[in-house]
Automatic annotation (TrEMBL):
Keyword Isomerase: yes
Enzyme class: isomerase
InterPro entries linked: Chorismate_II_sf (IPR036263), Chorismate_mutase-related (IPR051331), CM_dom_sf (IPR036979), CM_II_prokaryot (IPR002701)
GO biological process entries: chorismate metabolic process; salicylic acid biosynthetic process
Protein EC: 5.4.99.5
Source species: Diaphorobacter ruginosibacter
Name of protein: chorismate mutase
Source domain of life: Bacteria
Length: 117
């Protein structure tokens, strides 16, 4: 199976480079929107500001994506930096989504862990 790095076309002009980048952004943006949708789901399920940030999960994601990047012929350090920056943005978004849902009437979790009715 072709690695991602092997799909990069040789370019002679910046027009060609930017056409390649635009084509990938057309794929990336919908995926980032979809990933953001799961932050909304996470905010709803966690329903606790103190649970939004999860260091163990961040570590697990980085452990997954670094070897994936290497298998695709990429730079694992670059992908880790991108993921850490992206997750930081999604954490902010998850907090925003939880605040939005609270303003719309979502009640905080009770001490027993279930949602207050
Ligand atoms: O898996 C979670 O617990 C999430 O809320 C998602 C996510 C992410 O994948 O961006 C965001 C915040 C957490 O710190 C860890 C990971």
């Amino acid at each position: 199976m072709a690695r991602a790095i092997d799909k990069v076309k040789n370019c002679e002009t910046m027009t060609e480079v930017r056409a390649g980048v635009n084509a990938l952004d057309d794929i990336l943006v919908p995926l980032l929107v979809e990933r953001g949708g799961y932050m909304t789901q996470a905010a709803k399920v966690k329903n606790d500001e103190n649970l939004v940030y999860d260091q163990d999960r961040i570590d697990a994601i980085i452990e997954r994506v670094r070897p994936q990047a290497e298998r695709e012929g990429g730079n694992a350090d670059l992908i880790e930096r991108l993921y850490r920056a992206m997750i930081t943005c999604y954490i902010d978004y998850e907090h925003e989504e939880l605040a939005r849902m609270r303003a719309a009437g979502l009640k905080p979790r009770t001490a027993s862990g279930s949602n207050a009715s």
